[in-house]
Amino acid sequence: MKNIKYLLAGVVFGIILIKSQVVSWFRIQEMFRLQAFHMYGIIGSAIFVGMISILIIKRFNIKSISGEPIVIPQKQFSWGNIIGGLIFGLGWAITGACPGPLYALFGSGIWVIGITLLSAIFGVWVYGLVQDKLPH
Amino acid sequence: MNLISQPWPWYVAGPLIGLMVPALLLLGNKLFGISSSFKHICAACIPAGISFFKYDWKSQVWNLFFAAGIILGAFIAAHFLRGAEAVHINPATTAQLQAQGVKNFDTLVPTDIFNIGALTTVRGWVFIVLGGFLVGFGTRYAGGCTSGHSIMGIASLQWPSLVATICFMIGGFTMTWFILPYLLKL
């Protein structure tokens, strides 16, 4: 039952994704065609608020609700950040959705996106299969 | 502003998304991110002896609850908060897309491209299946997606996440400007 709080956090995030239209294929097209500020404003202000929040947590040494110190592991650079990033970007402009919005579009009733989700999961599986042979 | 009948502007939605970062940290030291859920689904359902999927996915099950919550929240927003209506985009974008062959602008996605029947066409396979494959393969290879790298990663000042985000955008611009017009004509 301790995971119910994450389900509720997901519900809130799902509502935000739909009501902000971040999930819209058309909004992603506007963004990549540089014809609207909407998506840039959302991503930029989300980063800003996230950054300030982390600074406050660190500055005041705020603990999690169960009393643990907050730990954010350092990411190691990998060539995957570049090559995988480019591959994801190509896919993002086709589907008009990154992983969160894929779940949200499915939930909103666009059931065909369920196939896109399965294909994304298959893509991860293929990555797992060949990752030893890829540059990192 | 009516939060139920109107779409939310960027300065409401963006900060709310940003607050997911401290919310998950405070709820249990969790890092905001979605794409890992695909990996956990592979590990749980189709590990097939692949070493990449040999780990204790149950210890990460919170991420699957988070993903399930997104589906549920989107259902609520679409059915009770008028979230599935036509999106009012820049008329210049509409005109460009119409010229490139997109017909339906009535909901969140162009349903002339994204529908089950389209799977009998090459274009349907490219948009519905290949697009998803690239999103899954690419995010895992990159180690994260828009939430994990672009928001959580950059907000915690991790330079590899900034590199990944720049590459997401380069990939997206390349597709939109140079490849998508041909894919829409398939």
Structural class of chain B: mainly alpha
The average pLDDT of chain A is 96
Straight-line N-to-C gap of chain A = 38 Å
From the alpha carbons, calculate the radius of gyration of chain B and give it in angstroms.
Answer: 19 Å
**Distinct helical segment count of chain B:** 8
What is the radius of gyration of chain A computed over CA atoms, rounded to a whole number of angstroms? 18 Å
Following the backbone from N to C, one meets helices and strands of chain B in this order, namely HHHHHHHH
The number of distinct β-strands of chain A equals 0
Query: Which geometry of chain B do the CA atoms define?
Result: globular
Mean pLDDT of chain B: 95
Helix fraction bin of chain B: 55-70%
What does this structure look like?
The complex is a heterodimer of chains A (136) and B (186). Chain A is an all-alpha fold and 136 residues long. Chain A has 6 helices and no strands. In chain A, α1 packs across α5 and α5 runs antiparallel to α6. Chain A is globular and about 45 Å long. Chain A starts with a helix and ends in a 6-residue tail after the last helix. Chain B is mostly helical. Chain B is 61% helix and 0% strand. Chain B has 8 helices and no strands. In chain B, α7 runs antiparallel to α8. The mean pLDDT of chain B is 95.
